[in-house]
Design brief:
Blueprint: E1 2-4, E2 12-15, E3 21-23, E4 27-28, E5 31-36, E6 55-61, E7 64-65, H1 69-75, E8 77-84, E9 88-89, E10 92-93, E11 100-101, E12 113-119, E13 121-128, E14 144-151, E15 155-158, E16 162-168, E17 174-181, E18 186-187, H2 189-193, E19 199-204, E20 207-212, E21 222-227, H3 241-247, H4 262-266, E22 269-274
Parallel strand pairs: 14-21
Antiparallel strand pairs: 1-2, 2-3, 4-7, 5-6, 6-8, 8-17, 9-10, 11-18, 12-15, 12-17, 13-14, 13-16, 19-20, 21-22
The protein binds fe (ii) ion.
The site of fe (ii) ion has 4 residues, from loops.
């Protein structure tokens, strides 16, 4: 059976048995990738009890239809969809490979990204560091950690300078899209040296559990937040990002030119608690 991903605003369906996505023509993909437990073993606190070949997540890159191609190319944006499957690796909920984004030499801040949840419930772990490209693992300074809980139909902007990882904290698959500035360089090494970001997020007896990652020397207070809309930056809940980009592409200018938007983006997190 096929379930339509209605929140995407696109003719995209998930097969309920295989969990794979199907795109209806004329939409097409540029690339597809899968990650299993073995490929991510350095990023989990303990993956030793899982089947090494167990699928963790699938990425559908560069979803587009021909008539939109000129616009995406002009802005240098790419739209991808990720499916994080249901389940745990050790006590942790399944997650993506955490990373930081690069920046242009004439800019102060690294590139942000839009994350939109299409189905399920996400916790996006956002970890600020201004020196994430250090080569020695003990030299990283983590300035802030935000855990944003995002439901289907909601979206966030990953702020500039924040490394990020997406965690499936719901009871089924988590499907989310991202819209990002395509020339952006991606840095995975620092997160891998530390065996993940600062907080491991999992479940015990069906209750969420947070555990500090001891591979970091010092971690700041952790904030738990809910997302806040900002229509001027193209973030209106239940309005698909792909469609909003086609209608009002300039709203997403911040993706390639983040410096003057940092304060506005930080106001889009409603901090509910901290620990
Ligand atoms: Fe990213």
């Amino acid at each position: 059976m096929l379930a339509e991903l209605q929140k995407s605003g696109l003719p995209i369906y998930q097969n309920s048995r295989s969990k794979k996505l199907l795109l209806e023509a004329p939409y097409m993909l540029k690339g597809y990738g899968e990650k299993n437990v073995l490929q991510m073993s350095e990023l989990y606190e303990d993956s030793s009890h899982n089947d090494k070949h167990e699928n963790v997540y699938d990425v559908y890159r560069g979803i587009i239809c021909d008539q939109d191609r000129e616009l995406f190319e002009r802005y240098k944006f790419q739209y991808d969809i990720t499916v994080i499957h249901q389940g745990q690796v050790g006590f942790e909920c399944k997650k993506t490979s955490g990373h930081y984004h690069g920046w242009e030499s004439n800019k102060k801040h690294s590139y942000p990204e839009v994350y939109e949840v299409l189905s399920g419930t996400a916790m996006f772990e956002l970890q600020k560091s201004m020196n994430f490209d250090v080569k020695e693992k003990n030299d990283i300074k983590v300035d802030d950690i935000i855990l944003a809980k995002v439901e289907a139909g909601q979206a966030i902007i990953v702020p500039p300078d924040y490394g990020h990882c997406s965690i499936n904290i719901g009871n089924g698959d988590l499907v989310f899209s991202n819209l990002a500035y395509q020339p952006c360089e991606i840095f995975y090494d620092n997160v891998r040296y530390h065996h993940g970001l600062g907080i491991y997020i999992g479940k015990e007896d069906d209750k969420l559990k947070f555990k500090k990652n001891d591979h970091y020397k010092n971690l700041p207070t952790v904030k738990i937040a809910l997302p806040v809309e900002n229509g001027s930056l193209g973030i209106k809940f239940n309005q698909p990002v792909y469609k909003t980009f086609l209608e009002t592409p300039d709203k997403y200018n911040f993706l390639g030119n983040p410096d003057k938007y940092v304060d506005t983006i930080m106001k889009m997190f409603d901090i509910k608690e901290s620990f």
